[in-house]
Amino acid sequence: MLEGPYIIPVVNRRQSTLNAHLPEDLKDKGTCSLTAIAIFMDYFRAHKGYDNIDNNIYDLYEVIVDNSSLLFGGTNPLSINNYVTDCFQYYGYNNIHGHTDNTNKINKIKTEIDEGRPVIMSLSKGYYGDHTIVIRGYSIYKVTKKGFLGIGTTTKNYLMLDGADGWGTSYTVYLDVEGLNWDAAGSFGLIWNMVRAIEN
């Protein structure tokens, strides 16, 4: 390893457990996108001073799921920035909003992590297609390989993202950024978006 791991203390939550605590009328309405928003919001409450947000993750998740059709307009991952903005406003915060980035995403993810803020990532293709997680850290690995026909060596740095995944049993997933930059037939797919919170 060359650098890292740089990890911020985002607490992962199992989506099935969160859904199990929902009242009967909301059972099975929670999604990976709403779970990621709850994990994301919980971090801002615990580490960024947004104390109005429910400190009980189950109450927070219930508010997010209960208001998803009214406040958030559903769980479209392309609208997660709006969901995040609406959630902050629900708790009385108009000084911060969700923002979707479509350029220089990798550099912006690193900057957000370096400044102590997680990001939400949705992927539409590949192994993690149709899924949303929270990125909470990264590591940089240095890999040296033999050259063509064993002549010489080449060295390359690889960026790996650390994600909090409420869906899986491992809770943590690692994404190879090289895979994120492949075409849609690659490991993760080109079609993905990243949402961060920006204070006004």
Describe the overall structure:
With 200 residues, this protein is α+β, with helices and mostly antiparallel strands. It has one domain: Cathepsin B, Chain A (Alpha-Beta Complex), CATH 3.90.70.10. The chain has 6 helices and 7 strands; from the N terminus they run βααααβαββββαβ. It has helices at residues 15-20, 32-48, 57-66, 80-90, 105-114, 177-180; strands at 3-7, 96-101, 119-123, 131-146, 153-164, 172-176, 192-199. Strands 1, 2, 3, 4, 5, 6 and 7 form a 7-stranded antiparallel sheet that branches. The radius of gyration is 18 Å and the shape is elongated. The model is unreliable at 182-190 (pLDDT under 50).
Which short descriptors sum up this protein?
Cathepsin B, Chain A; alpha+beta; 200 residues; 29% helix
Present the secondary structure layout.
Blueprint: E1 3-7, H1 15-20, H2 32-48, H3 57-66, H4 80-90, E2 96-101, H5 105-114, E3 119-123, E4 131-146, E5 153-164, E6 172-176, H6 177-180, E7 192-199
Antiparallel strand pairs: 1-4, 2-7, 3-4, 3-7, 4-5, 5-6
Helix pairs in contact: 2-3
**Into which percentage range does the β-strand content fall?**
25-35%
**Counting H and I runs of at least 4 residues, what is the number of helices?**
6
Give the CATH level 1 class. Alpha Beta
Order of helices and strands: EHHHHEHEEEEHE
Number of domains: 1
What integer is the average pLDDT? 84
- Return Rg in Å: 18 Å
